[in-house]
Amino acid sequence: MLAKTPPMGWNSWNTFGSDINEDVILENAEAFVRLGLPEAGYEYIVIDDCWSMKERDAKTGRIVPDPKKFPHGMKYVSDRIHEKGLKFGMYSCAGVRTCADYPGSFDHEFLDAKTFAEYGCDYLKYDFCYMPETANGELMYRRMGLALKSSGREILFSACNWGSDEVHKWIRSTGAHMYRSTGDIHDNFESMKKIALSQEKLLGYSAPGCFNDTDMLTVGMFGKGLVGTTGCTEADYRTQFGLWCMFSAPLILGCDVRKLSGEMLALVKNKDLIRIDQDEEARPPIESHTGWGGDKRVYFKHLSGGEYALGFFNLSDSDQRVQTNLTNFGLSASSGLALSLRDVADGAHFGKFTDYISIHIPAHDCRIFICNLENA
Ligand code: GLA
């Protein structure tokens, strides 16, 4: 089964946009391996938009890789990526053109799926620009879903219609393994926060086999690259990564992996956070916003094996106390039980709580714990 747990990997778009080529992709794949990302669970290297010629081949009708960017073709790139023990992902679009105005797969779905399979592709991101005015988006995703299934290769189907057309209600039925449930992310705190908060009511739709995708991470970009804008602080990135993990979202890195280091590298490899993200039950968190002041969230998530994750998020622009009553999550005072907390940042025991937890958290930051129920 594909996408038993949320897919993990890297995608070229956030940093490189149209500025991609064989070297950029293979150097990022090399850095990916050197930094130990595969051991942490990351596996897909995905080339986003702008990889092809502007027009299809007139004779064969096929999409053709741009020889200036990919002089050895896509099978070569795919082989080099597979040699590193990684999986190879590509991009196309349900419309007539891709979002950056390259050929889309509309009405060429089966031929394109076959072409991608021939490249040795393991993952297809499928966008939503340039749809004919009367075309039905749901049907277009059904078509590519079947085209990939019949391509002769197992290809993970990553749908990307930005949360439109109530996609959460029908996308699983198309065979997709993940789907963008939001618009595009930009590398600033407000963009990330808007995306995260827009998901609260949709998280129940995310489950093994098909996960809600809150877009590629901007962690580690620090304002550099295509969606760079103002950039984020380390606290902002801790919060972004923590939210994605609490949400069981796909973890697709979008930074220049060659420059990923220090705190941010440790963050994206944090074993406890990844365990929360990759928990096989993929349960949505219970959400609580108790306490004074706005823009604070506490999420409580059941994990497999009798554990829980508890995340305190200060999404406001000032330092705050973030509080919650454990009764919100089902722990009653009469149970005789307490929740024991271990901080994912350093593994330290944080305390045992029976009813109420209040933690001081700097602006934009978070604290996340793995918890057990014990006798009070
Ligand atoms: C859309 C998608 C982005 C990216 C670009 C490429 O905006 O949502 O993730 O793939 O297209 O043009």
Strand content: 15-25%
Could you state the CATH homologous superfamily of the largest domain? Aldolase class I
In total, how many beta strands?
16
The CATH class of the largest domain turns out to be Alpha Beta
Ligands in the structure?
alpha-D-galactopyranose
Which CATH-level-2 architecture of the largest domain?
A: Alpha-Beta Barrel
Mean pLDDT, nearest integer?
97
Strand order of the largest sheet: 7-6-5-4-3-2-1-8
Note down, in words, how this protein is organized.
With 376 residues, this protein is of the alpha/beta class. It has 2 domains: 8-277, Aldolase class I (TIM Barrel, Alpha-Beta Barrel); 286-375, Immunoglobulin-like. It is built from 11 helices and 16 strands. It has helices at residues 13-16, 22-34, 37-40, 73-83, 109-119, 137-149, 167-170, 189-197, 234-246, 262-268, 271-277; strands at 8-11, 44-46, 87-93, 123-127, 156-159, 178-180, 211-213, 251-253, 286-288, 296-302, 308-314, 320-325, 337-343, 349-353, 356-361, 366-375. The strands form 3 sheets. It has an 8-stranded parallel sheet. Strands 9-10-11-16-13-14 form a 6-stranded antiparallel sheet, covered by helices on one side. β5 (156-159), α7 (167-170) and β6 form a beta-alpha-beta unit. α5 (109-119) packs across α6 (137-149) and α9 (234-246) packs parallel to α11. The chain is elongated. The model has no long low-confidence stretch (mean pLDDT 97). The chain binds alpha-D-galactopyranose. Alpha-D-galactopyranose (GLA) binds at residues 13, 48-49, 98-100, 127, 160, 162, 184.
Overview features:
376 residues, alpha/beta, Immunoglobulin-like, six-stranded antiparallel beta sheet, 11 helices, 26% helix, elongated, binds alpha-D-galactopyranose
